[in-house]
Amino acid sequence: MESLSQKPEVSEIVFVNWADRWQVYQRLQELEIPCSCATNQPLRVHIADVAAAVQLWSVTKQLTAPRQDLVCVLERCWRFLAY
Q1: For FRET with 60, which of 23, 34, 53, 78 sits at 20 to 30 Å CA-CA?
Q2: Alpha helices by DSSP H, 1-83
Q3: 15 within some domain
Q4: DSSP 3-state assignment of 47?
Q5: Which helix (H) or strand (E) holds 10?
Q6: Do residues 62 and 25 touch, judged by C-beta distance below 8 A?
Q7: Is the residue at 71 inside a domain?
Q8: Inside any domain, residue 53
Q9: Which residues contact 45 (CB under 8 A, 6 or more apart)?
Q10: How far does the chain reach from its first CA to its final CA, in angstroms?
């Protein structure tokens, strides 16, 4: 019988632009998030916890969001820190 305290682990296929997937893969490797990216295959990421999911979201957002959106987020953070 499985313990209820065990956290589920998920392996996800992440669909990103083929030109960007190696950059996403390398950043996830730097963050020590298990992933694989074979030639002509989608990026696969092993999500073990919420922190890994948020980091994956952040990495992909940095590459896919319009520059102006990223500037707005950064400006909001600076305003928040100023208070």
Answers
A1: 78
A2: 18-30, 50-64, 67-82
A3: yes
A4: strand
A5: strand 10-14
A6: no
A7: yes
A8: yes
A9: 11, 12, 13, 14, 28, 33, 34, 35, 52, 56
A10: 51
- What pLDDT is recorded for position 39? 85
Residue 5 is encoded by which pair of tokens? 């305290």
Number of domains forming the structure of the chain: 1
pLDDT at 3: 45
Q: What CATH number did the domain enclosing 68 receive?
A: 3.30.1370
Q: How far apart are alpha carbons 16 and 60 in whole angstroms?
A: 8
Chain segment 34-83, per-residue pLDDT in tens: 999 888 888 999 998 999 999 999 999 888 889 999 999 889 988 888 77
Give the position of tokens 């305290």.
5
Which amino acid would we find at residue 63? Answer: L
Confidence class for position 5, pLDDT limits 50, 70, 90: very low
Determine, yes or no, domain membership for 45: yes
